[in-house]
Amino acid sequence: MDCIHLTGIRGYGYTGYLPEEQMLGQWFEVDVKLWLDISTAAKTDAIKDTLDYRSVISLIQHLVKTSKFALVEKLVATIADSILQECEHVTQVQVILSKPAAPIPDFSGKISIELTKTKSNPKAQND
To answer: Alpha helix (H) ranges present in the chain?
Structure first.
């Protein structure tokens, strides 16, 4: 299976366990790996035969900006499920959600959650 990687998708959102995270918000960064068959698009050179990744970027940015969950685990699962639901060509997705500036005293690293999901009933290519 072929893959499309989208990295460094940034968005400001309000997901977090601490009250200030849900009130003040913070930056999130998302990387996704999308599994799909690109062989038809490689022959036809037609966008309809592949994934228009602009729609995936917009979907992710919208979910980060509008979701308000206590846990990033819920946000990363919501992103993965939404991509699988909205993108007919995608059969599997890996989402890595990072908090580059987690509000933890004396910690300058970043927190990341990685989730891989497979479409349970892939749609037929000609749907």
So the answer is: 19-24, 39-44, 53-66, 72-86
Task: Enter the tokens of residue 66.
Answer: 């509008």
Which residue in the list 68, 74, 99, 119 is annotated as catalytic? Answer: 99
CA angle 121/51/124 to nearest 5° reads 30
pTM of the model: 0.90
With contact defined as beta carbons under 8 Å apart, do 44 and 70 qualify? no
* Residue 123 annotated as catalytic: no
Residue 78, Ramachandran bin (φ over 0: left; ψ between -120 and 50: alpha; else beta):
alpha
**Which residues have a Cβ under 8 Å from the Cβ of 105 and sit 6 or more positions away?**
none
**97-121 residue pLDDT tens:** 999 988 888 999 999 999 999 998 6
